[in-house]
Amino acid sequence: MKWLWILGATIVTVMVLLLLVINKPKPMVCTKQGQSKSFSALDYKELESWQQQLIDKAEAVMSNSYNPYSKFAVGAAVLTSDGEIIVGTNFENASYGTTICAERAAIIRANSEGKRKIKAIAIIGRGKDFETTEPVAPCGSCRQVIYEASQIANNDVMVIMSNSKKDKIIVSWISELLPLAFGPKDLGIVL
Ligand SMILES: [Zn+2]
């Protein structure tokens, strides 16, 4: 009879172990820390003409950048849903935290002109004493504002990021730059 008890106990143990393995929570799939998604870069000549125009408009406004602290000029240009281009540049402040980035300046200026729906935004930046070799990407705050604009327009917003020489340009989307974004829907708001 003893062997029956041992057999029974073994079967129960194996079943419990099997249940534990089956019900084990699956780990979330995510990229490892420090491992960022790779974006392919383009040259200015490879862009469509309207994309080139948007970068050129952003570049032109860089000379108006007010940047006595960072000495880093940024220009941004938004393309509105009715085809208008509205530009913005960074405006710094001695109280650093109140600085306004070029991207937000452009979006808020567009809104002031009654153009709240945007389709794309181009960004370019340069240091006072150096060219940027990598495309200039929007900061976290600006990504959040671009996301809000995408929710207002009910379309994804294309984000065109350029280095100062315009030979390394990344074309992406706000949905790609700010995944799992917090937005109006999280507040139960339908815009
Ligand atoms: Zn910013």
Number of helix segments? 5
Q: How would you write the strand order of the largest sheet?
A: 2-1-3-4-5
Helix vs. strand class: alpha+beta
Poorly predicted runs: none
How large is the share of residues in beta strands? 15-25%
Radius of gyration, whole Å? 25 Å
CATH architecture: 3-Layer(aba) Sandwich
| Small-molecule binders | zinc ion
- Categorize the overall geometry: elongated
Helix content: 25-40%
What name is given to the CATH topology? Cytidine Deaminase, domain 2
**What is the domain tally?**
1
CATH class: Alpha Beta
Distance between the termini: 73 Å
Q: What is the topology?
A:
Elements: H1 2-23, H2 49-61, E1 72-80, E2 85-89, H3 102-112, E3 118-127, H4 140-153, E4 158-162, E5 169-173, H5 174-177
The structure holds zinc ion.
Verbal overview:
This protein is α+β, with helices and mostly antiparallel strands. The protein has a single domain, classed as 3-Layer(aba) Sandwich (Cytidine Deaminase, domain 2). The chain is about 35% helix and about 20% strand. The chain is built from 5 helices and 5 strands. Strands 2-1-3-4-5 form a 5-stranded mixed sheet, sandwiched between helices. Strand 1 and strand 2 form a beta hairpin. The protein is elongated, with a radius of gyration of 25 Å. The termini are far apart. It binds zinc ion (ZN).
